Amino acid sequence: MFENKVILVTGGTGSIGSELVRQLLKYNPKAIRIFSRGEEKQFYMQQQLAQYKNVRFLIGDVRDYQRVEYASRGVDIIFHAAAMKHVPASEYNPMEAVKTNVNGTQNVIEAAISNNVEKFVAISTDKVVNPTTTMGATKLLMERIVIAANQYKGKTKTVFSCVRFGNVMGSSGSVIPLFCKQIENNLDLTLTHNEMTRFMMSIPQAVKLVIDAAKNSTYGETYVLKMPSIKISTIAEYMIEDYNREHSDAYKGEIKITGIRPGEKLYEELMTTNEIERSFENDSMYVIPPLFHADAREYEKYESVKITSYSSNTNDLMTKKELMNVIKENKIIEWN
Asked: Which domains, from first to last, does the chain contain?
């Protein structure tokens, strides 16, 4: 469905957006427009993708409707990855998170409707389930306005859907790059709580879910990858062991418990009880139909869900060996 299509990726220079662009290029699209506000990241990405003649780089902010509307002209598919995603920054600057995650998303929605885009896939997070932070609350509202766009789009053909991620290993600002810097500089490794758990997925897994959502969405579904969870303390212990295997000078710091940050949870959930009751599944993901359009006939290729909850503290926990396999396979850690 991507061959010879014009694709817009907002936040296209971020960890997920940039990998999404690389994967989409394999499908021979007519053009991919990379839309982001950071010219430095665009400069480096231009060097990396210099051999491709079908890639366009557009400076812009999703808060600016006119710029988004121009960028959406002639576009067939939009992947909306632009967001404020860091919990502390959003907590300290709540209205900025609203302007980007909510108002910015509405701008992209309206531009998609105005330009009769075929598919629109927005990227969300596990923090939308029973949110306790500004970031989680704004991303939940983002999900709601994306799915609701299917109701008021009129005769426009756009199909709006969402994907919901857990923690993406190795993405910018995530725990693994932070732990790498602390270990390499012999600083104490900061852990907020010894029992904290999180869902974990690799960047390629995350991107595959986004692409599958674009292929399969029919009317406002939210897609959730089946993924393992892990104790953050297991990640910390493994990374220290891995560093010491690779270096003659052993890490001299220690794991320091700093306490849970404001709004932070001990565990995350990926689906609410209400969502589970009406959802479907296949081998790799769960599909949450919209409340206002839940015709089971459209999901005959799936099975009804068998779980009663989807929480990182009750889910299967990854072992150090399983973590090692994922990290090595995806080259997530590169020690200096």
From this structure: 6-166+200-227+273-305 (3.40.50.720)
